[in-house]
Amino acid sequence: MNTIIEPFRIKVTEPIHIISAEERAQKLKQAHWNVFLLDAEDCAIDLLTDSGTGAMSTHQWAAMMMGDESYAGSRSWKRFRDVVQDISGMPFVFPTHQGRAAEGILAECIVKSGMIVPNNSHFDTTRANLEYVGADARNMPCTESMDTAAQYPFKGNMDLNLLRETLEQHAAEIPFVMITVTNNTGGGQPVSMANIRSVRALCDEFEKPLVIDACRFAENAWFVKQREQGFADKSLTEIAQEMFAMADAATMSLKKDGLANIGGFLVCRNEEWADSFRNLLILREGFPTYGGLAGRDLEAIAVGLREALEEEYQRYRHATVQYFAKQLDAAGIPYMSPAGGHAIFLDAKKFLPHIDSLQYPGISLVNALYLEGGIRAVELGSVMFGSFDKDGREIPSPLELVRLAFPRRVYTQSHFDYVLEVLKRVYDQRSTLQGYNITKQPPFLRHFTCEFEPV
After folding, report:
1. Phi, psi values for residue 437, rounded to 5°
2. From 3.10.20.600, 3.90.1150.10, 3.40.50.150, 3.10.180.10, which CATH number describes the 21-50+310-454 domain?
3. What is the mean pLDDT of the chain?
4. Domain boundaries, the chain
5. pLDDT of residue 334
6. Using an 8 Å Cβ cutoff, are 88 and 251 in contact?
7. What tens digit of pLDDT does each residue of 315-344 get?
């Protein structure tokens, strides 16, 4: 059928409050032109992130009622542990309150100042946690990922030649290699099983552990099933298990493919690493069998991890993204193509070629979407991923993207049709949009709280 049908019925609704264009302009100015600083109630359609913003199923809500809130060794912990062990194959499982807590524990326990951590692309919190301990978080995306129009099926892949070169030159400084599935920074693009296998082979050759950032592992499994030869007849769970089998450890924000509103985990095979993680977890998050989560959260996550690997759910989710992408193609609006798994990434550099990268075309486009239709998106360009040279000069990001992240099981097709209508209006008036300057910024993760002013 051509019509997308959401594979669920809606039992509870939440009203959307749409404020006027004049009010939106006032609210954005009060937020210093940074949509992170807006109140959620002032956003008609909130596509800022897919992290923790999804709707839970009836099975998840029912499981929450089974939550065992015992401090140590609860039944809920055991259900959570068993599901994570089954999918990841890792014996040591540590819950955390969210993904960046797992990344912070990994960085603080294993990484020292001056070390280098290669990745296909570090996302913002991963990079910040590594840089906080003094490491060099290096991105090594495949060359195809730099062309937003190229129809390459696995643009999330790691550049194997660059990884080999880095391992040959800096092996002593590299504590482990990371690979992020899907590659959020590069447009929500998938990583092929062949590429993960090749990264694993290089890690074995240089005797380095491999760590997976598994936030969207189920979406990546779907792409492998659809696009990679030899996987069409395998279940998503089997594909995920094969992917994790090549890793020594993994971090995950369960606010993505855990289909939960909070939670994360850190898993590993190495007992020495596990001892180190456990000690810091107790200090930072709580006892190792709850890790900053309530028993009811552990229950909801245990169910959500299974639901994320259901083919019906993934088919619907990806059909929605593809529907949106086809409408953009028809309108000639530039985006990272082929579309990723959890979001549409608009190419702000092509959308607004008259705005210099260091006047942040992504911020201009994000703000225009809010002003035109109350839509909140997020910039993934030089504000989030720019850097500075040794003399303090700002270096722009190679890509200037704007992410429209699709919360899981929240919006219907008519909501996305509205977003498309707003986006087309902004595109028609794109020549009138202006750049922005930063007036205030923190040293880490500046995009969350920095302030702007129009040029």
Report:
1. -110, 150
2. 3.90.1150.10
3. 96
4. 21-50+310-454, 58-308
5. 97
6. no
7. 999 999 999 999 999 999 999 999 998 999
